[in-house]
């Protein structure tokens, strides 16, 4: 199990605390320092069963600078998927967190205790 975190994020710290309380073995990836490649983001999206816009923090400054809410420039369909992934790789702060990759090959965006427990149970 791996968890992508930003140490400044309270949701990330809560997820780590719960993993520790449950005695789970995991590795931490500080994704702002160890930035995932576009291919790694694609793999996590496949595991999540989500699209890149589903895990994008659209309120971040970089999202506003890129104008990610402009659906003409940033279509939310197959035609825009690669551009969204490249934006996440270039601006990792846009990636929703924490993301836990579970032992069964799936992943969850673990923003709640329930989501963390779901990942643990996999």
TrEMBL record:
Keyword Oxidoreductase attributed: yes
Cross-referenced Gene3D superfamilies: Glutaredoxin
PROSITE patterns referenced in this protein's UniProt entry, alphabetically: ARSC
Database matches in Pfam families: ArsC
Residue ranges crossing the lipid bilayer per the database entry: none
InterPro entries: Arsenate_reductase (IPR006659), Arsenate_reductase-like (IPR006660), Thioredoxin-like_sf (IPR036249)
Keywords assigned: Oxidoreductase
Keyword Oxidoreductase: yes
Family to which this protein belongs: Belongs to the ArsC family.
Protein name: Arsenate reductase
Gene label: arsC
